[in-house]
Amino acid sequence: MSIALRKQKILAAVIENYIATGEPIGSKALMSCEGLNVSSATIRNELADLTAQGFLRQPHTSAGRVPTQLGYRFYVDNLMKRSELEEPVKRYIENRLESSSDAPENILSSASEVASELLGTVALSTAPSGEGSRVYRIKFVRTGRHTSMLVLITSTGMVKSRLFRCDFDITPEMLNVFDRALNEKLAGRPLQSVNRAFAQTFAASFGELGLLMPDMLLAVLDACEEAGTAKVYTSGATKLLYQNELDLISAREVLEFMNDDSKRRELLSTVPDGTEILIGNENSSPHLRKCSEVVTSYSIDNKPAGSIAVIGSMRLDYSRAVSVLEYIAKVSGELIDEIISAQS
Amino acid sequence: MSIALRKQKILAAVIENYIATGEPIGSKALMSCEGLNVSSATIRNELADLTAQGFLRQPHTSAGRVPTQLGYRFYVDNLMKRSELEEPVKRYIENRLESSSDAPENILSSASEVASELLGTVALSTAPSGEGSRVYRIKFVRTGRHTSMLVLITSTGMVKSRLFRCDFDITPEMLNVFDRALNEKLAGRPLQSVNRAFAQTFAASFGELGLLMPDMLLAVLDACEEAGTAKVYTSGATKLLYQNELDLISAREVLEFMNDDSKRRELLSTVPDGTEILIGNENSSPHLRKCSEVVTSYSIDNKPAGSIAVIGSMRLDYSRAVSVLEYIAKVSGELIDEIISAQS
DNA sequence: TTTTAGCACTCAAACATCGAGAGTGCTAAC
DNA sequence: GTTAGCACTCTCGATGTTTGAGTGCTAAAA
């Protein structure tokens, strides 16, 4: 669907103006604010066309024009200019992410915070996904007579710990046995394969010793599961309440969605291979049908490993969102690469 | 300030009715719903008195009466009946808290969740406060060539872990040295005394070895600080948006407050010695001036150790909130006591 | 053929008016 | 001290009215 140049210019002007001000814009205002040397009547004709084609709509007869979902789509695909981020902003992002302590999880948690701050809306991020990541090493730390802590280190540099408790005294010797047995069987195994079924055959293979292990094994399963399912970080959820395109009901709907961990995870479960923009009902979840999502991915070792996203009303500064997210993703990936190489 | 019995009865009826329905109540409705055998005119007279005394107010001339902050106060202090919790609810609370894994933090995180669920409003809880808790043991786990994890076990049964990274190879021998040195100096020390100043003298006492330790020491400080400052858990923040006593602006204000970690911590920093109810501007924070807070404490080893609270509009079911919170606190304390005795 | 000026038209938002209903305070009688 | 009765006040919702912004259409100009 190609549109004459002037129409495109007008469409871009309407959308950018609307994104900036939140107000519908009419032919007269458009005339003054653009490099178009045509009268308002001419613009009106073009607006009528654009409206007929479904790119714009009028909230009511005597209001200006507002972009439709289709309009945003066209804008994002054809009209939007990518802008380079200002140096100070880049510097700020770097600082914020570097000061997270040395765990990938912290970096991504900071990533969502920074994104939310800079873009003024909700931001989400996932820790490196468990997909393809493996058990690297498991260690035990005795924390008390009946309690102990298990430390799982994955091939993607994540470290998860879990406490467990047994009815009997946990001796250092016992932990040594656990340690040897577990690492022998688990090192190198894909996290996802460490499931309930595996635990059973594993315990069985130990005969009577296996009977002592259920609490420990549960902790292992737990840790592997947590490390294997990418955790989702959310920041700035309350900012939704300031988006006056969303009424209280819609905002509540989105917030509810955000509070549901499984839904959030589902939303970010597929890591895009670049940056994606989903507008309105292009979103998979009906809760987000009035929202837009901009999502990008960061890479570890040059492979997409997790997502960073923002969600806002359809009136979102797409251009800036893309720039900010992509830069955050770039820096995050680099920092994690660094951590992993330190673990070597 | 004593009030005649009949007035008290009427006041209680107005408040309980308003808490239940959210609607102002008038003399006629009051007449039918109470065990008072007097006419609406008589009730009107009493209502007029109670209003003059500041316990009630009218939203407008032709509306019924609504409690004021003073009214709620009097109700809570003198009129409110404590009710025993139903058995199934007790059972539910126990189940939810027991299924949290074996860490005090998880129990308290669940505590706030359950409270929020049962009372339909925001709930907060603090992990056992660092006050008076000491370093019990510190352990190290090598997680990579340049990275390692430190595990701090406190006298209150908390376990905190922290990753750190050095520029040089971390050998097991080195960790052994760290381990011995740290535990010698730190075991039994109050968490709060493990601060920057301490770290400096500590590092100095090691001569050249001290130079290798800054990253590790930072991790120790970090872990002690985190273990020493009670973490605050929040649940059900979005429920505030359903309280129609709070308009969008007020709800936003409260949500903002909730998002500010330092404010939340301040709010719960003093652990009450029983249950406290703060109504309206009795709250220390002006953000909560339209809200009420019910806060109670749980005890570890018979000493108050942390708080569990709910915050809602002033129209809160105080009676139920008290029952639910106190029961949650009781169970939480017991479970934590158990964990600690398992570490012995 | 495209652009423009002019004008009648539509509609939302703001404001005013009105009646119904709820609940009151006051007064006078019990 | 209590009650019945009544006039009064105020909100709420429904129903106009006005105003202004922005439009679509038409006919003339470029």
SSE map:
The structure is a homodimer of 344-residue chains.
Chain A: H1 5-21, H2 27-33, H3 40-52, E1 56-57, E2 66-67, H4 69-79, H5 87-98, H6 104-119, E3 122-126, E4 135-142, E5 147-154, E6 159-165, H7 172-186, H8 196-204, H9 208-211, H10 214-228, E7 232-235, H11 248-259, H12 261-267, E8 275-279, E9 291-300, E10 303-313, H13 318-343
Helix pairs in contact in A: 1-3, 1-4, 2-3, 5-6, 5-13, 6-13
The structure holds a DNA duplex (30 and 30 nucleotides).
Overview of the molecule:
Chain A is of the alpha+beta class and 344 residues long. Chain A folds into three domains: 5-79, Winged helix-like DNA-binding domain superfamily/Winged helix DNA-binding domain (Arc Repressor Mutant, subunit A, Orthogonal Bundle); 87-129 and 230-343, Beta-Lactamase (2-Layer Sandwich), CATH 3.30.450; 135-228, 2-Layer Sandwich (Enolase-like, domain 1). Helix content of chain A is 48%, strand content 18%. Chain A contains 13 helices and ten strands. Chain A has helices at residues 5-21, 27-33, 40-52, 69-79, 87-98, 104-119, 172-186, 196-204, 208-211, 214-228, 248-259, 261-267, 318-343; strands at residues 56-57, 66-67, 122-126, 135-142, 147-154, 159-165, 232-235, 275-279, 291-300, 303-313. In chain A, the strands form three sheets. A five-stranded antiparallel beta sheet of chain A has the order 7-3-10-9-8, sandwiched between helices. In chain A, helix 2 crosses helix 3 (40-52) and helix 5 (87-98) packs antiparallel against helix 6 (104-119). Chain A is elongated, with a radius of gyration of 26 Å. The mean pLDDT of chain A is 90. Chain A binds chain B through residues 101-103, 137, 139, 141-147, 149, 151, 153, 159, 161-165, 222, 237-238, 241-242, 248, 251-252, 255-256, 259, 339, 342-344, and chain B through 101-103, 137, 139, 141-147, 149, 151, 153, 159, 161-165, 222, 237-238, 241-242, 248, 251-252, 255-256, 259, 339, 342-344. The first copy, chain A, binds a DNA duplex (30 and 30 nucleotides) through helix 3.
